[in-house]
Design a protein that fits this description.
mainly beta, 4-stranded antiparallel sheet, 3-stranded antiparallel sheet, 7 strands, 42% strand, binds zinc ion
């Protein structure tokens, strides 16, 4: 198999681009708005459900803006087994919508 065939095989095995969840946060201290991509393949850790509970996924992100305040914003997210967001918490900032972010 040559290089191009390998690439073609790789592409057909992954017909969709990497699923991602976009997170928009605003820093509590300086008000900076930050957009973060959560890679639903590589950023999540599985949590196996205890008897009867569904498996879920967990992700923790530490976000630091590019402005000068350097306050870390910590986000914790829980996803269900279909990788749909179930719950999220933030420390050091606020969740904002894509509209508020102004992308
Ligand atoms: Zn800040």
């Amino acid at each position: 198999m040559n290089f191009l065939q390998k690439i073609a095989k790789f592409l057909t095995a992954n017909p969709q681009s990497t699923p991602a969840y976009w997170l928009y946060v605003e820093c509590d201290r300086c008000g900076e708005k930050i957009k973060v991509c959560v890679n639903l393949h590589s950023d999540l850790s599985i949590r196996y459900g205890e008897s009867g509970d569904e498996d879920s996924y967990f992700c923790r992100k530490m976000i630091i803006g590019v402005q000068r305040c350097f306050q870390p914003i910590e986000v914790e997210m829980t996803f269900d087994r279909n990788k749909k967001l179930k719950d999220r918490q933030i420390m050091g900032g606020q969740f904002i919508s894509a509209e508020e972010f102004g992308s």
